[in-house]
UniProtKB/TrEMBL annotation, chain A:
Keywords: Cytoplasm, GTPase activation
Protein's name in the database: Rab proteins geranylgeranyltransferase component A
Keyword Protein biosynthesis: no
Any coiled-coil regions, as ranges: none
Automatic annotation (TrEMBL), chain B:
Pfam families according to UniProt: Ras
Biological process annotations from GO: endosome to lysosome transport; phagosome-lysosome fusion
A GO cellular component annotation in the UniProt record: late endosome
Swiss-Prot/TrEMBL keywords: GTP-binding, Lipoprotein, Membrane, Nucleotide-binding, Prenylation
Lineage, uppermost ranks: Eukaryota, Metazoa, Chordata, Craniata, Vertebrata
Name the UniProt record assigns to this protein: Ras-related protein Rab
UniProt membrane topology term: Lipid-anchor
Gene3D superfamilies: P-loop containing nucleotide triphosphate hydrolases
Organism per entry: Zoarces viviparus (Viviparous eelpout)
Length: 600, 213
């Protein structure tokens, strides 16, 4: 565990532990390359990370602090003949912004939970008016946070008064299980103190995506045997929001037949449509370039089916061209039934597991890992414009043949910036129940929410239950994502207010209550930008807004193929049970080295 | 986890971590325990995730013990969650001939307890292994000291082991499995969490094998 000196030579140095970088790391290590994998952060997975409730509060805190620009150390003394330095950016302050936290549950038990360090992060019952006014300008988001910092203290007395009639041993009581809280007619709201106390039961992802059961990430996990490190849950149902109602979308044959919303005629039409669109036809080709919506209209399916097919199955917008809409419909259908009734899987313990699974594979094959450890600059041979070595944050010169770096570490001076960065809007809610209660309280739902008003974005929502190991019993974790138009709060709070119970919503008695929520914007990684960097330096980009992981996987594969075109990308790792120890068979009794041959 | 058997045999799969400083003998202990092998030749551990030992615990219980070794990365103390995830027991190993490896024990233990807990929030059972005891020079008896250390640091107990001479390796494993089983009985059955899916390589291997000579 000690801080030893690192080896001074590697084949590949990788900075950043997001999904794309981690897949690159595993791929190189697996074929025998010496990999050094670093991250400046204290946690794995960069903007793909998942946090316990308490570490999320710390993360929020960090993003509110002014980044401290480290002093630029002059490393020119380490330069050799004909080399020059390229400094990397040492603050990653730009990829996450506009954080806003609201706590709509009482702070009770705070006294007993004196260790809860982050209570100031929450705002007690911010009134709708306040929040909207103060955040109408994006810039004011941070100052608002500062103000609300004070609130819990001011309100403490009031709080206590309102609580004294209550049951004091609250804090020590076991958390209500899901079953209990469902069956009790007047369920007790989970307090903020309980969220903190049970904080380790949360694994809250910064990104919200799903795995298509026949998508490239599932294929890669299987091909490489990295799948041995992860377990998944099926997404059990697809929902959509229409006319102020949450409805289930029938997508499998069984669903269609079981559906109670659909008439017999609709059922037949839907089945016919789903069967027919698998094959490309002349009729479809005639619509190329024209909106998919138009194609659907002309199929005379009716409004119900049209909505389901456009928003929940193709998951496209009204102006998406027909060929694209059909392609994603086919992908959806191909993925049905491989593992369950919907096309999607979600990793137990959250998406943040996936990059770590690839890191583990890299490490098992000899990759070296250091967190809180960065690269401050690159040493470039002027003549060849190649990066010969890097200088790490401890001032050590480390030679490498290739350097892979996450975009966030590349200084603005190296970016050929044409357009301002695009952002994603994200919200994370901890709620006290499911958005569509059913006979099972362990549903994992994908919900598509079409624009609630003209000019509003389409919102993708994923609701997770405790058996995904991402939230404590008695709660659900809801992730909302859209392309940002305004700040995350501006984009998503109208949807939250409509679909959940918050102090701002009216007449939503039957909707689940929001106990706590977080809004933030994250840079959209689909914006691939050009860089002025040496030819053996490769840049990866963070999470994009798509539901799938194709973007990260394809970046990783592309980088690998550029550097090692002849090598297999992530060949299967030997099964631990198939590893033969030479010592058993060698009659000479000489060296008893283990080898990594598997039985073939 | 369990594949039912004709008799009322209970099958368990336990993930056990083996941690400790570089070169203390983690891999050697695993190899001794699982493969009955020992090699003097030191080689950094590469390409091995875990080893599986199947124990016929008693007539009604079968235990599959997955022993997770640590790989090169851990020298710098940054293991991924994947390594810790759902472990139910641990061995922390040090080398009796190198005092510095004993000093690191409490750090490893602390790290372990901060990263993995049993479902009920308690630390996972862990056992301390004083390895390479075949090389111990002085025959001084510090049993009381070690007992006390274990109590303070939260180890269930400790064993002097030698992977080389096969001393106490089986005993230590038996001791750990006993307490894992005891824990397991005390815990509510977690089947309410429903099915989890493992993605497996689909069995296309059959065809590719046939051409082999
Ligand atoms: C399993 C795990 C491994 C980690 N590995 C690293 C690492 O290698 N490097 C690094 O820098 N940071 C790692 N972290 C992150 C770092 O340890 C966190 O900052 C710390 O766990 C947060 O502590 P806490 O006090 O908030 O919560 P704690 O209560 O310490 O967190 C406990 C966490 O463990 C999980 N957990 C509990 N029992 C189990 C179990 N049996 N199986 C799986 N998960 C369980 C909980 O869901 C929760 O996420 C890891 C975190 C976890 C949970
Ligand atoms: N004499 C003696 N030597 C041992 C014993 N156990 C291990 N060794 C030797 O110690 C060296 C290191 O053993 P490993 O099992 O590779 O140690 P490790 O902890 O797995 O090392 P890393 O994987 O590099 O962290 C080898 O040369 C072993 O032969 C033991 O019980 N007695
Ligand atoms: Mg080893």
């Amino acid at each position: 565990m000690a801080a030893e000196e690192l080896p001074s030579e590697f084949d590949v140095v990788i900075l950043g532990t997001g999904l794309a970088e981690s897949v690159v790391a595993a791929a190189f290590s697996r074929v025998g390359q010496r990999v050094l994998h670093l991250d400046r952060r204290s946690y794995y997975a960069a903007n793909w990370a998942s946090f316990t409730f308490n570490s999320l509060l710390t993360w929020i805190q960090q993003h509110h602090e002014e980044p401290q620009p480290e002093e630029l150390h002059d490393w020119s003394s380490l330069l050799e003949e004909g080399e020059e330095l390229i400094y990397l950016s040492n603050t990653d302050s730009t990829s996450v912004r506009n954080l806003q936290v609201f706590c709509f549950t009482s702070e009770e038990g705070e006294e007993a939970e004196a260790q809860s360090p982050d209570a100031p992060n929450t705002t007690e019952e911010v009134s709708a008016g306040d929040a909207v006014k103060e955040t109408s300008e994006t810039e004011s988001a941070d100052s608002k946070y500062e103000e609300t910092n004070q609130k819990p203290e001011e309100e403490e007395e009031e709080e206590q008064a309102s609580q004294t009639e209550g049951e004091e041993p609250e804090a020590d009581q076991p958390t209500p299980t899901a079953a209990q809280s469902q069956s009790e007619p007047t369920k007790k709201k989970i307090s903020y103190a309980q969220l903190v106390k049970e904080g380790r039961r949360f694994n809250i992802d910064l990104v919200s995506k799903l795995l298509y059961s026949r998508g490239s990430l599932v294929d890669l996990l299987i091909k490489s045997n990295v799948s041995r490190y992860a377990e998944f849950k099926n997404v059990t149902r697809i929902l959509t929001y229409r006319h102020g109602q949450v409805e289930q979308v029938p997508c499998s044959r069984a669903d269609v037949f079981a559906s109670r919303q659909l008439s017999v005629v609709e059922k037949r039409k839907l089945m016919r449509y789903l069967t027919s669109c698998v094959e490309e036809t002349e009729e479809q080709r005639a619509y190329n370039g024209r909106p998919y919506l138009e194609f659907l209209c002309d199929q005379q399916l009716g409004n119900n089916l049209q909505h389901f097919l456009l928003h929940s199955i193709a998951m496209v917008t009204e102006d998406t061209p027909t060929e694209e809409g059909l392609a994603s419909t086919r992908h959806f259908l191909r993925c049905l039934g491989r593992y369950g009734n919907t096309p999607f899987l979600f990793p137990v313990y959250g998406l943040g597991e996936i990059p770590q699974c690839f890191c583990r594979m890299c490490a098992v094959f000899g990759g070296i890992y250091c967190l809180r450890h960065s690269v401050t600059c690159l040493l470039v041979e002027k003549e060849t414009n190649r990066c010969k070595a890097v200088i790490d944050s401890r001032g050590q010169r480390i030679s490498c043949s290739h350097f892979v770096v996450e975009d966030g570490f590349v200084g603005a001076d190296r970016k050929r910036l044409a357009t301002p960065t695009r952002f994603l809007s994200r919200a994370v809610l901890i709620t006290d129940g499911s958005i569509l209660p059913s006979n099972s309280d362990q549903q994992v739902s994908m919900i598509t929410v079409p624009p609630v008003a003209a000019g509003c974005p389409t919102v993708k929502m994923v609701e997770l239950c405790p058996s995904t190991m991402t939230c404590m019993p008695g709660t659900h974790l809801v992730h909302l994502t859209c392309q940002s138009v305004g700040s995350a709060f501006e984009d998503l709070s109208p949807v939250v207010t409509r679909m959940f119970r918050t102090p701002q919503s009216h007449d939503q008695e039957k909707n689940p209550s929001v106990l706590w929520c977080l809004y933030f914007n994250m840079a959209d990684g689909s914006e691939v930008k050009g860089h002025d960097l040496p030819s053996n330096v490769f840049v990866t980009f963070g999470p994009d807004g798509a539901l799938s992981h194709e973007h990260a996987v394809s970046q990783a594969e592309l980088i690998f193929k550029k550097i090692l075109p002849e090598e297999d990308f992530c060949p299967p790792a030997p099964n631990p049970e198939d590893i033969i120890y030479d010592g058993e068979n060698t009659s000479t009794g000489g060296e008893e080295e283990q080898s990594l041959q598997t039985e073939e | 986890m369990a594949g039912g058997s004709v008799f009322e045999c209970k099958e368990y799969l336990f993930k056990v971590l083996v941690i400790g400083e570089l070169g203390v003998g983690k891999t050697s202990i695993i190899k001794r325990y699982v493969h009955q092998l020992f090699s003097q030749h030191y080689r950094a551990t590469i390409g091995v995730d875990f080893a599986l030992k199947v124990i016929n615990w008693d007539s009604k219980t079968l235990v599959r013990l997955q022993l997770w070794d640590i790989a090169g990365q851990e020298r710098f103390g940054n293991m991924t969650r994947v390594y810790y995830k759902e472990a139910v027991g641990a061995f922390v190993v040090f080398d009796v001939t190198r005092g510095s490896t004993f000093e690191a024990v409490s750090k490893w233990k602390h790290d372990l307890d901060s990263k993995v807990k049993l479902a009920n929030g308690n630390p996972i059972p862990s056992v301390l292994l004083a390895n390479k005891c075949d090389q111990k020079k002085d025959s001084s008896n510090n049993t009381a000291l070690m007992d006390n250390f274990c109590k303070e640091t939260g180890f269930l107990g400790w064993f002097e082991t030698s992977a080389k001479d096969n001393i106490n390796v089986d005993e230590a494993a038996r001791f750990l499995v006993e307490s894992i089983l005891a824990n397991d009985k005390g815990l509510p059955y977690e089947e309410s969490n429903g099915e989890r899916i493992k993605l497996d390589q689909e069995t296309v291997a059959a065809e590719s094998k046939s051409g082999c000579c």
